[in-house]
Specification:
Elements (H helix, E strand, L loop, with lengths): L8 H12 L5 H7 L5 H26 L4 H12 L5 H28 L8 H24 L3 H26 L1 H10 L3 H20 L20 E5 L11 H9 L4 E8 L5 E3 L11 H4 L13 H4 L6 H6 L10 H8 L6 H11 L2 E6 L7 H15 L6 E3 L5 H7 L4 E2 L14 E5 L5 H9 L3 E5 L4 H10 L3 E4 L2 H4 L11 H32 L29
Helix pairs in contact: 1-5, 3-5, 3-6, 5-8, 7-19, 7-21, 8-21, 10-15, 15-16
GO cellular component, one term: plasma membrane
Subcellular location: Membrane
GO molecular function: glycerophosphodiester phosphodiesterase activity
């Protein structure tokens, strides 16, 4: 077995054993006449596709972390089981991508070392399982969480310039095993096909920046002001959601608006609660076990005050930040109760911030009485009405008549032939960057929810959004600048340099491997390179004509 320069025989043997799960030495390989067959080539191609598949899933897994708390809440409502499923997702994804990457690296090293690609049946089975698991994950994402496809589109505009550099780098490194294949085969058709396909891909990558757009490619002096922060149910990473402690933590994070949800008790007292049932954020199953599955609005205010609204936060740890709470904060968490709207308005007024809320449930048969009870509390509280941001669509006109000073926030885009809206509140997936900029030019305030990851906050900042609703106010308040901001001239220079360096490295790889392939062909010997994937079979010595 003639090994290429720099590829020692023991190393080649170890690589082959890891890939084929058999201890095959050079002598055994020669004796058995091992060679790479068309079937082996097909499995290598399948391995490469599985690697790309898992790599794309890894990208998606990182993107959907921004919204994963919603998934945790959904699972709890369905199964009554709380678990941070993001950890399960990341661990499973890391295992899949590590396995497929390691196997691909082994295959490429074997190819460069001129070894046969004999993939063991166990690896084949695991690759099929990997492909099925990732396919199931994508299918579930498309069925149950389709809006995340929009999140991926947004992320591509944020990460596009850097993904381009990474892909160009990966394809440049691929030139080494590709050149090894081309110089070992005598199949002209295969040579031409591989070269044309590789050249087409590289040309497309070199020109890809022509189609890459990102709102963060701009001059420094064009950067819009930093978006204001809206505390989603307060500061739910630092305190139990929709509690007075959460409100105060949000104030400490310099939020301008406290976003919450309001329900009305059976005896007409508006209080803060997001879920229709009390099981997730209170100890209702312990205090009122026979009524635990009843709707929140079925409880009177006296009963609601008996419930603890903080202990669940310490027990279930909905966010990793719970681990870092101080002893004093933990004691304060344990004392939290369900706050009334009146108490929340008083805290908001003292903190000089605004409050924005939904009134739930909007499909309730007595919803008009809920609206009246809520307005009564607001008007009696003495809070300046411009600090109250009204989200519910139901009976909006009646609210305008009774309390015209309240700011109306719309959960939809503006319509044609409609008087201009002043404030809109939408999911971040529902507005394009062009729409955000158009609304900004038209002096329409745009708030997008829920934005937790710095990369997403950065791209919305560059787009010019007015404010964002967030669970991670303690993280976003520390950001003084978007993660990256590039002038177009700088990006053009990076583009040209990356393409030139890539081209030179590819040229060097082909020239160097051509020289090596010429050196390792002994005089008087011919190399049998008729296998479909050349380099997979060891060179066979032809009989010398003089010794025949």
């Amino acid at each position: 077995m003639a090994d290429p320069p720099g590829c020692c025989r023991p190393c080649a043997t170890c690589l082959l054993c890891l890939y084929s799960c058999q201890w095959i030495t050079a002598k055994k390989e020669k004796r058995k006449g091992l060679r790479t067959t068309k079937c082996d080539c097909s499995w290598f191609l399948f391995l490469f596709c599985v690697f790309l598949f898992t790599l794309v899933w890894l990208y998606f897994a990182i993107i959907i972390l921004n919204d994963f708390h919603n998934f945790n809440e959904f699972i709890f409502k369905q199964q009554k089981l709380w678990l941070d499923w993001s950890l399960v997702l990341l661990i499973a994804t890391a295992v899949l991508i590590t396995y497929s990457t390691a196997l691909l690296v082994l295959a490429l090293c074997l190819q460069i070392c001129g070894q046969p690609l004999k993939l063991h049946w166990l690896h084949k089975t695991l690759l099929i399982i990997t492909a099925l698991v990732v396919a199931a994950a994508f299918t579930g994402l498309g069925i149950k969480w389709a809006e995340e496809w929009k999140s991926a589109r947004i992320s591509l505009q944020e990460t596009g310039p850097f993904l381009h550099i990474g892909i160009v780098g990966g394809m440049t490194l691929l030139a080494w095993p590709l050149a090894s294949v081309i110089y070992r085969t005598r199949n002209t058709g295969l040579k031409v096909f591989l070269l044309l396909a590789y050249c087409a891909v590289m040309i497309a990558l070199y020109l890809a920046p022509l189609g890459i757009t990102s709102p963060c490619i701009m001059e420094e002096n064009q950067l819009p002001p930093k978006p204001a922060l809206v505390g989603h149910r307060g500061a739910p990473m630092l305190a139990p959601e929709n509690t007075l402690m959460s409100l105060q933590k949000a104030v400490d994070c310099n939020v301008q608006v406290f976003e919450t949800d309001v329900m009305v008790s059976a005896d007409g007292v508006p209080f803060l609660m997001h879920d229709e049932k009390l099981t997730r954020t209170t100890d209702v199953q312990k205090v009122f076990p026979e009524r635990a599955d009843m709707n929140s609005t079925a409880f009177n205010w006296t009963d609601l005050q008996q419930l603890n609204a903080g202990r669940w936060f310490l027990e279930r740890k909905p966010f990793p930040t719970v681990q870092s709470l101080s002893g004093g904060d933990r004691a304060l968490v344990d004392e939290q109760r369900i706050p009334s709207l009146e108490q929340a308005l008083e805290a908001v007024k003292e903190s000089n911030i605004s409050i924005m809320f939904d009134l739930r449930p909007e499909n309730h048969s007595d919803y008009w009485s809920f609206v009246n009870a809520t307005l009564d509390v607001i008007l009696k509280s003495g809070i300046p009405l411009q600090q109250v941001l009204w989200l519910p669509d139901g009976f909006r006109e009646q609210v305008k008549e009774r309390a015209p000073g309240i700011q109306q926030i719309y959960g939809r885009k503006r319509l044609q032939d409609e008087e201009p809206l002043q404030h809109v509140n939408l999911r971040y997936q529902d507005m394009s960057f062009e729409e955000i900029r158009q609304y900004r030019r038209d002096n329409i305030s745009v708030n997008l929810y829920v934005v937790n990851q710095p990369w997403l906050f950065s791209v919305l900042w560059c787009s010019g959004v007015s404010s964002v609703t967030t669970n991670a106010c303690q993280v976003l308040k520390e950001m003084k600048h978007p993660i990256w901001l590039l002038p177009s001239s700088t990006y053009l220079m990076i583009w040209i340099v990356v393409d030139c360096v890539s081209f030179l490295m590819i040229l060097w790889a082909f020239l160097l491997l051509k020289k090596c392939s010429q050196r390792r062909q002994p005089v008087g010997k011919c190399v049998d390179t008729s296998s479909p994937l050349p380099g997979g079979s060891p060179p066979r010595l032809a009989a010398r004509s003089s010794g025949a």
